[in-house]
Amino acid sequence: MKKLCTVVGVVVMVISFGAVQAAAQGPQGVGASVAAGSAPSERSHSSHSLNPVKWVKKSPKPASDQLQTKGEQDKKLTAKLQAQGLLSANTDLKSACDTFKSTDRCLVALHVSHNLGLDFNCLKSDLTGVQTSADMSGCKGTAGSKAMSLDGAIRALKPEAKAKAEAKNAEKQARDDLKEAGA
Question: What residue numbers bound the domain in which 94 lies?
Fold first, then answer.
């Protein structure tokens, strides 16, 4: 009899302990916040989402889309780059940057090609991994088969150049251009 009472006592404690834990979890399901008696905005006091889809960063808009939304900046940059000789008179920044993921990457490529005397279409093809409709027969290296780093593209097109120093110089020039254009 003593064993039976002990077993029943242990079972009752386990069941009651389990019920207390389940009640502490709160209601589950679609209408859980309504059943709990509060609005979803009141319950979600944390800014961190538990939805794993929201953890993945969305890729930035391509450079051509970024420039489309920043029309005034595009006009300023195009005029400035044409005056510096980085863009030809009949080319605007949007069409020159159409395959780049960001405007600043495109500006860096424009400065590198101008500073080192490289063909911009070859450099653009190496950096983006996208073949352009321009004549690529004069390009050295892989010419668009796979995207390369800026240093790697400079080394492929002009091996005697100091790739890292040239890349840093072009990045500074591009930042200055963006700052002057109001970006």
Answer: 63-181
